[in-house]
Design goal:
By secondary structure, this protein is mostly beta strands. It has one domain. Strands 1-4-7-10 form a four-stranded parallel beta sheet, with no helix packed on it. The protein starts with a strand and ends with a strand.
């Protein structure tokens, strides 16, 4: 799952980005068979996302990847995340830039 918004370089004042996307109740596992940089949730040029009540496990890198800090206001709560970064070990289950 992923979001991708539009900006003028990093100017997001036009509001052409996903905002307040709710990702809830998903069961995501066994990623990374073909794509080694995959995540259960990938976010770029979006903000105010709500990730709640999900189960993410068995993936090569981070389960949740906030690619940039655009806008902020993200909420990550009540998720079960384990067995992530199995092929790199370079960070934890949630990666933020």
């Amino acid at each position: 799952m992923a979001t991708w918004g539009e900006t003028d370089d990093y100017d997001a004042t036009k509001g052409n980005q996903p905002r307040q996307t709710r990702v809830e109740g998903n069961f995501v596992h066994e990623l990374g068979l073909y794509e080694k940089q995959s995540s259960a949730w990938g976010q770029a040029k979006a903000c105010e996302t709500i990730l709640v009540n999900n189960v993410f496990f068995n993936m090569p890198r981070a389960a949740v990847n906030f690619n940039d800090g655009l806008g902020g206001g993200n909420v990550v709560e009540n998720n079960i995340i384990f067995n992530s970064c199995r092929e790199s070990g370079d960070h934890g289950p949630i990666n933020t830039w």
